[in-house]
């Protein structure tokens, strides 16, 4: 069967530049490098098309390949999540559009200029560097919420921010050019003008402390770990990727670290088992196996530092019917198409349903449509269709009947770009390297964690480990099971989050054969079942012959079948797999030998995991990942692991990144404690709670003009009463007047940049906020000249500071609460609202 890579349908929304530009960048933007990020929004009517490969979510192979978001040709707006994904706030510059050509001035060449008002020129690669920043998880031209919280610039928006971003992107790019290097601040002083030294410090410190540069296992990095730790003690619970990443990073920062691990080995859900027999051997990844996207993937960086090359999983994935005959390619294509359409219908449904979609499962929506539209009709088609459902259950490690229709794919915008890859020899090589030099005590099953103002006590067996702080990285399954007693009990909102999020199951049968009898021009093939309840049973096979060092096949068990599999005797499982393989290969005249060794996983009953990976279950949302990440006990007890990352849940890289994140968080709290500064709980309980509320309230703004919306604190006409303004970045914007003077080449480069940025923005739903008075909001509405002039007025004339939702602070919390209460009353009394909707452009 031919390559199964589906064609992603062209989208028809005309291109419109985002509300941002690099109007003053000079010299001309260079030819861009291809972005690793998908570009779902090419404008078919434009002569300018981005030819960036789309990492189709509908590809059938690879971990967490899922359905796409609805195409942008659909007119219904997407259902806003309870809180938007992390909103990198305002894009660049908040100053009036230039009245004419405004060539960039190099401040070094013109000392009479006010330097702080000039955009610096670091080199000729700002676009390429911005794209590198995108791959590393930063918006190329704006700040992340975390950067704003860390106070990397003195005020958000404006030229200082532009310069910071240029410097940040440059440092990131320089390190990514050679990740074996320890990049020093001093190495930038020749290219960063002296007046930007503070920004250089700020960007460098942020990137190093948050693990964006100078992390990993390269000798130059390892040698920076101080021989004598001078910082407080941290007890890390769990030696999976999250625990190991955090431990290494903390050691680098000078903390004294001990890792307590319940198993006899490290790696947790990354487990490469050496299989052997009759002079054959192979490395089998029984847990996490596929690096889902290489661009910006920190595990790819670790691999690079170890001199390991990744192997791209090929797209070709033939499917076989229950009787072993190949599926007809035409029917295959037709059903895949129907399946994708059904997912699109489900997406549209959730948009219409609004919040109700939170209480409905993806499975229920798909089943309803399936019956209404009768997409699959013959038995063969039904089997094929069920295979796609199994694939979706595999991607999410969850029964479709348990996945939230509203948010099951909330992390899709943060998919790492690039190929899906295997690491030859298995991911255990990464684990091995990460664990070297880390003090890990094995077979220490933690059953109690006490935390308080003075520190923590972690109890495993009869031993008590005391520390200044602790980091808990145990899987969500272990938390759900209550295997660890927290004293005092965890806050109710965290307990609720733990309960709401789903933790599903995926199992594997790994088989080492005496020789490769299957085709070597593919890495995957699938098998259909005619029993819907067994649709996930050995539905997909991974051939590891090219990367495992021997003739290894792995069969996957997903969905309902994965649960039944937990109690299936291993010999029965292997017999069933062999039946399938013989059904496929023997009619082709190929003999299928008995395996030399087989292993069946039991991730569901493994007491150190109790499941495979997390998903957004019915009733849950992306917020729950944030809640699970919240520290407790005034900066004493922290949490990391795949189920604590909203952007990259259920993945190996997500676990690793969460470890780096918490190392930064722990260091921040420890430093603040040392300086006796009170750290605001981050993210604060209130802020989190208000975030969802805020998103709800802005669905019905009191005022709307351009990209601005306002909700009023009180229904009085008091001009001094409080209001909350939200600026939506990422929509459309009229061309800046300066565009007219650019050359075609400049324009097309800029367009590319903007298009990428636009794509990023659309994915990210950029929202920034401020508190202001009713009077100010009304004044702002009257400003002519479009959004740019309004932003200028807001920042320069009203002097307000735009912040991410978390930066609004307690004053806003009470305004939000009062609006909520008032609206509740209004609804209750069914009065008509006094809502004004101003549709000024
Ligand atoms: C079958 C399967 C296939 C997967 N496939 C992929 C894939 O292809 N690509 C991908 O990116 N991801 C995949 N994943 C997900 C990925 O493996 C995980 O997201 C990631 O490894 C989780 O890392 P972690 O550090 O958060 O948790 P873990 O790796 O689970 O680490 C937690 C550690 O805590 C220990 N622990 C638990 N309880 C205690 C206790 N009470 N006391 C002391 N220690 C304790 C555990 O033993 C474990 O070592 C897969 C997972 C599974 C199970």
Automatic annotation (TrEMBL):
Listed GO MF terms: flavin adenine dinucleotide binding; oxidoreductase activity
Positions in coiled-coil regions: none
InterPro entries from the UniProt entry: Amino_oxidase, FAD/NAD-bd_sf, Flavin_monoamine_oxidase, Homeodomain-like_sf, SWIRM, WH-like_DNA-bd_sf
One biological process term in Gene Ontology: chromatin organization
Pfam families per the UniProt record, alphabetical: Amino_oxidase, SWIRM
Keywords in alphabetical order: Chromatin regulator, Oxidoreductase
Residue ranges, annotated region (Disordered): 1-110
Regions of compositional bias (Pro residues) in chain numbering: 7-43, 77-101
Domain SWIRM: 123-224
SUPFAM superfamilies: FAD-linked reductases, C-terminal domain, FAD/NAD(P)-binding domain, Homeodomain-like
Basic residues compositional bias, start-end: 56-68
Stated role: Probable histone demethylase.
Family statement: Belongs to the flavin monoamine oxidase family.
Name under which the protein is recorded: Lysine-specific histone demethylase 1 homolog 3
Biological source species: Ananas comosus
